[in-house]
Amino acid sequence: MSLSVELTGLQAAQTDLDTIGNNIANAGTTGFKGSIVNFSDVYGSSLIGSAGAGVSPGQGVMTSSLSQIFSEGAVTQTGNPLDVAINGNGFFQVQTSTGVAYTRDGSLQLNSNGYLTNDSGALIMGYGAPASGSTATNAGALGTIHVTEGNLPATASSTLNMSVNLPSTDTAIDTTTTPFSVSNANSYNESSSTTVYTSLGTPETLTTYFTKVSGSGTPDDWQTHYQLSNSSGTMVASGSGATLTFNSSGVLTAGNGTINIANPGDGGAALAIAQNFTGSTMSDLSFGVSSVTGNGTGGGEFTGIEVNNNGDVLAQYSNGATKTLGSIALANFENPQGLTPVTGNSWQATDASGPAVTNAPGSAGLGTLESGSLEASNVDLSTSLVNLIVAQQAYQANVQGINVDQQDVQKLLQLQ
């Protein structure tokens, strides 16, 4: 009886040693979650007698369960834009050769076919690129994320938003006697230039001129004109634009318009640029441009990808533009303890864990992503080494108990 009891202790101590050893071995594994062994005592049952009628020494110990510790590991900066750490709850969902798995390892990369994978080669799953005219990247069925490395085509400018302050102290100009002319600085009061793009991606300079028109109202209106010039400074087109009107408080009351250029000079399509002066003012302050924004870009070469905090996978281009190629999804479970760990720093769902609940990072209780970072193993080496000593002592004590029992058996045999 005693030998069998100590054998269970020996087996339990060995399980503890194996578990602690596995934790220590994975102290440097990205996203690894350590485990602890839970033990319970073993007693035999008897159909004779009542509770308390006799005292049983017990039949040893058994391993009741192996619990995973899902506390977060430290997040460390790597500088690699494809490294992603999860801050909070959730797992990356990946497609492997044997089915769907879940991992906290965000060491991402592109495979030879342009698909986003982790270090083990499993395909990262998420939502596809948003539909044209939409910004939603967390809709539709889950799938793998494919990165296209083609160039980004040029986009012609179609909007130009300018917020300026026009000096009320500027001298009004009689446009009858002094009609506007780009070559005559006395025919306008202020000017500002910005870059616009043709449909072929050619950058050209659009200069807006502001003329305070004498006798046009109370206060005086401001007439705008424009000139489009190519990179060499040669004029491509010119014409009149919107007339800006202000109330007595210097607040803009009207003045948006459209600049139409039939021939931008590079063989591209005609330009129609909606010019919006919302936010412009007139005051005794000097002329100033507080903001200029507009669309339109030249063509761009693919330079790389990055992942932002909400999981969007963004392609980057040489012209500074970005394009959303898809969005990484995160999954969580009602009972993460029920997940089964598998090779490759991953887990698989079970009946005990419940089905995966998938959504975008930062929603439905899921964590956010931190680009350029990785989550370290949550194994505490100091604690593990102390636990290793305790488990080793338990193992040695059970071995010593077996030795004592063996000696007692030998003595009994010698008496016969």
What does this structure look like?
This protein has 2 helices and 29 strands. It is mostly beta strands. It has 3 domains: 108 residues, no CATH class; 152 residues, no CATH class; 136 residues, Sandwich (Tick-borne Encephalitis virus Glycoprotein, domain 1), CATH 2.60.98.20. The strands form 8 sheets. Strands 5, 6, 9, 10, 21, 22, 23, 24 and 27 form a 9-stranded antiparallel sheet that branches. Strands 11, 17, 18, 19 and 20 form a 5-stranded mixed sheet that branches. Helix 1 packs antiparallel against helix 2. The protein starts with a helix and ends with a helix. The mean pLDDT is 89.
Beta-strand share of residues: 35-45%
Helicity range:
10-25%
Q: Average pLDDT across residues?
A: 89
Give the biggest sheet.
9 strands, antiparallel
Q: Globular, elongated, flat, extended or rod-shaped: what is the shape?
A: rod-shaped
Radius of gyration, whole Å: 37 Å
Q: How many domains make up the 3D coordinates?
A: 3
Strand count:
29
Number of discrete helical segments:
2
Going by helix content, strand content and strand pairing, the class is: mainly beta
Low-confidence stretches: none
Terminal CA distance reads 21 Å
